[in-house]
Amino acid sequence: MRTWLTDYVSGCATCQQNKILMHRQRTPIYRIPTTEKALPFQHISLDLITQLPKSQGHNAILTIIDHGCTRAAIFLPCSMTVTGPGIAQLYLDNVY
What we know:
The chain has helices spanning 2-11, 13-18, 84-94; strands at residues 44-49, 60-66, 73-78. It is α+β, with helices and mostly antiparallel strands. It has a domain at 40-96. The chain has a three-stranded antiparallel beta sheet, covered by helices on one side.
């Protein structure tokens, strides 16, 4: 009887719409592909976290994440008015 009920519920559209999902599957995190011989901070990603409350003249954070061998992260305070050359200078001063 159990197999019959399982087959019935899995084939019934109304049962599938009203069924409560107890174990919702999470989407796997995408990992940036790298080579095995990658050096630290050779494959990176940059992100700006903005709209933060002002603290010591800064209202944004530049995050630099290594996707190579160390999986390290560097968080640099900056302002929302930072430009491309400013981000490059932060990278040059703090990472390179």
